[in-house]
Amino acid sequence: MRTTLLTIMVLSLALATTACKDAGPTGNAVGSVQRSAEFVEFEKSMWTSLSAYKDTYLQSYAEQLQAAPDDPLALVQTFDNLMYSISGPSGLWRAQVPQDYFGCSANHELPICQQFSKLEMSFLPWETLHVQLAGITTEADAQAFLEQYGEKLQQYLTYYVPAGKTLEEVQATPFFKDQLAIFLQK
């Protein structure tokens, strides 16, 4: 049942991304990219949100974050980098927090370490989104993706991304509070 649900989610995301392209006979997006005022505001808001991480997770993007270009493709690429740093296989939640803060490689029997193992499946939809983000190569496709998934990306920032890399900042995230905090209570 769980595998079927994940498969449906993955296929839905793939179909939705494909469906939102305005493609010509060669498969390339046609026409100029028109941006609504609402999209421009969203784009500015996302750059502002991402700039909070220029000294931690997005150091290599510091100049771009400062400039906040009117470029949906750059925004998608920056967000993709952040997502990989946070929930990718060697990212914060799947490697750094379990190993660095809880020693799960040596103490895998601890309840919190077992919970980290159980949570691996919850990152699959984000990995699927990462693959989609990495495959976006045009401004038009980036804008279409952001228009469709922008709210989901904002939720990701709020739920998973800590303000910094300290244990206290990690514990302050809604993800930690919802999924892991119970294992630290005495």
Summarize the structure.
This protein is mainly α.
Observed structural traits:
186 residues; mainly alpha; 63% helix; 0% strand
Task: Kindly describe this structure.
The chain has 186 residues and is mainly α. It has one domain (37-184). It is 63% helix and 0% strand. The protein is built from ten helices and no strands. The longest helix has 22 residues, at 139-160. The protein is elongated, with a radius of gyration of 18 Å.
Based on Cα principal axes, name the global outline.
Answer: elongated
Proportion in β-strands: under 5%
The beta-strand count equals: 0
**How do the SSEs run, as a string of H and E?**
HHHHHHHHHH
> Low-confidence spans: pLDDT under 50, at least 5 residues?
1-31
Oligomer: single chain
Mean pLDDT: 84
Largest sheet: none
Q: In terms of structural class, how would the helical and strand content be classed? A: mainly alpha
Instruction: Give the termini separation.
Output: 34 Å
Helical residue percent?
55-70%
Instruction: Please tell me how large the radius of gyration is.
Output: 18 Å
The structural domain count equals: 1
- The number of distinct helices, counting runs of at least 4 residues, comes to 10
Secondary-structure map:
Elements: H1 2-19, H2 37-51, H3 62-67, H4 72-87, H5 92-101, H6 111-119, H7 124-134, H8 139-160, H9 167-171, H10 174-179
Helix pairs in contact: 1-7, 2-4, 2-8, 4-7, 4-8
